[in-house]
Specification:
Layout (H helix, E strand, L loop, with lengths): L10 E12 L3 E13 L5 E13 L2 E14 L3 H4 L1 E2 L4 E2 L16 E12 L4 E11 L2 E3 L5 E3 L3 E15 L2 E12 L10 E14 L3 E12 L6 E3 L4 E3 L1
Antiparallel strand pairs: 1-2, 2-3, 3-4, 4-7, 5-6, 7-8, 8-11, 9-10, 11-12, 12-13, 13-14, 15-16
Length: 232
């Protein structure tokens, strides 16, 4: 049962960031966010980013490497919900008395991106490791995976121009180590072909063309309108 008179949640946290720049070639920043007390007590996030730039005839080529480590408490509406079809709560904060209690998720992620704007090229790769992943099970209720899930991805984007015509392409390859919790198509692609021109110069610009999407076969999550969540 839900307590009478509503529920109040508070947080006390501290945060800080540092950043630096070495001429126009190196940019870096780092930050921390730590919750001292309250609903998200002891949640922490550490993040950092390094951006390296080189220039060929004043045209930049940029390599960005960034990542974070985060411990996060599940959102209130994940652990407490009441509707015509579903009811669950986490007021006791005890696994012994309430099987729906969920613990913190932990995620470590690192990614890199190479960007060459002058030729419309971009490529990136990332690796994420999530422990105690929270998801919605086959009953449409929140559940928690007790192990570690690895998510790996790589993408390439290449755009072309020919007069007023634009040809944009993106290909993504990704892999989940646990398809029962996080299901992903192995490969997906996106293409956008269109004409881009001014119908009335400096007043009305027009883009006309088509977009196309493709992905390999996989078991996509179902959608539950009662909870507005995707589930297994």
């Amino acid at each position: 049962m839900f307590p009478q008179g509503g529920t109040k949640k508070n947080d006390t946290y501290v945060y800080g960031t540092v950043q630096g720049k070495l001429r126009r070639f190196v940019d870096w920043n780092a930050g921390i966010n730590y919750h001292l007390a309250g609903f998200r007590s002891q949640d922490i996030k550490l993040n950092a980013e390094l951006r390296l730039s080189a220039y060929i005839k004043s045209r930049p080529i940029t390599l960005t490497v960034k990542g974070f480590i985060e411990d996060r408490t599940p959102d209130y509406w994940v652990t407490n919900y009441h509707s015509n079809h579903f009811v669950w709560s986490d007021y006791t904060r005890s696994r012994e008395t309430n099987p729906w209690t969920l613990s913190k998720e932990t995620e470590t992620r690192i990614e890199g991106h190479l960007d060459v704007p002058s030729i419309g090229f971009e490529a990136g790769v990332w690796q994420s490791v999530v422990t105690d992943k929270i998801y919605y099970d086959w009953q449409g209720r929140p559940a928690q995976n007790s192990g570690t899930i690895s998510l790996t991805g790589f993408y390439v984007r290449k755009d072309f121009k020919l007069g007023p015509m634009r040809f944009n392409h993106r290909v993504l390859v990704q892999k989940s180590s646990n398809e029962d919790v996080v299901a992903l198509p192995l490969a997906s692609a996106y293409a956008s072909y269109f004409a881009d021109f001014h119908l009335v110069r400096n007043v009305l610009r027009l883009q006309i063309g088509f977009d196309a999407w493709y992905h390999t076969e996989y078991y996509a999550p179902r959608y539950n309108p009662a909870t507005m969540q995707f589930y297994k």
